[in-house]
Amino acid sequence: MNILIVVDMQNDFIDGALGTKEAQSIVPKVAEKIRNFNGRVIYTRDTHEKNYLETQEGKNLPVVHCIRGTTGWELHPEIEALRKETPVDKPTFGSAALGALLKAQDTDLKRQGKEGIESVTLVGLCTDICVISNAMLVKAFLPEVAVLVDASCCAGVTPQSHDNALKAMEMCQIKVV
């Protein structure tokens, strides 16, 4: 089984509080990737509460974003229209719950006498924060599974930090395609 993880394709990261033109430009590519993907598609959603500015992340990045229940927290409408399962809400950059979900699915497949997860591909936002964090978590939970990142379907805080994150992931045996 192949898995596609769509990381934080939310309004606040695309055209909201932390949006960029690079993030806006990947929306059609991510939608196309989802439509053509042969396997399970899992979505993550950066999720903060109203006390965001009091949290460790809020103190280091004092831009209110992705507050649960707001328009900025919602997936971009083009991406939302393709969603078939409930997103994994994550209060931090990387999601241990996502790693545990993938590990459990891999174990279940093997228990049924099937091949486990063959590959996990990540796309989304931001390459240099949440995509890299979750790619590393997937590697930790499933060390023998191929982990890929589609660079054309990712955007970073800046083009330079996007490129730096891709290089760092390659050094950690994550295949950048």
Task: Report on this structure.
By secondary structure, the protein is of the alpha/beta class. It is 41% helix and 20% strand. The protein is globular, with a radius of gyration of 15 Å. The model has no long low-confidence stretch (mean pLDDT 98).
List keywords for this structure.
177 residues, alpha/beta, 41% helix, six-stranded parallel sheet, single chain, globular, 7 helices
Quick rundown:
This protein has seven helices and six strands. It has about 180 residues and is an alpha/beta fold.
How many individual helices? Answer: 7
Helix content range:
40-55%
Computed Rg: 15 Å
Ends distance: 19 Å
Our estimate of the beta-strand percent is 15-25%
Q: Report low-confidence residues grouped into runs of 5 or more.
A: none
Mean pLDDT: 98
Question: How do the strands line up in the largest sheet?
Answer: 3-2-1-4-5-6
Derived from helix and strand composition plus strand pairing, the structural class reads alpha/beta
List the topology elements.
Layout: E1 2-7, H1 11-14, H2 21-36, E2 40-46, H3 56-60, H4 77-80, E3 88-90, H5 96-111, E4 119-125, H6 127-141, E5 146-155, H7 159-171, E6 175-176
Parallel strand pairs: 1-2, 1-4, 2-3, 4-5, 5-6
